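Recall the central idea of this unit: under ordinary conditions, the amino acid sequence of a chain determines the structure it adopts. In this exercise we apply that idea directly, starting from the sequence alone.
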Amino acid sequence: MGPGMFVIAILGCGDGSAQCQPVATLPTRYESRSSCAAATGDALMASTRFEFPELQAECRSVAAPLSIENRQAPPRSQG
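Accordingly, the structure predicted from this sequence is:
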């Protein structure tokens, strides 16, 4: 995958990976999916405060923050 930013989402699941739901998104951002994936094991080991039969970690793509120029409202049309 091309350039982007990724975060690790921790999912809490019922028995057998059924009914997974997001329980946390870690604040660290990764510049590639592979560097994010390499950190998922440690993220799971640190996520012991959730009471689910099973926890999973997955990398999710996040949009890069907009620059100040892109956040300004478009000009209104006169008419």
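Confidence is low (pLDDT under 50) at residues 66-77.
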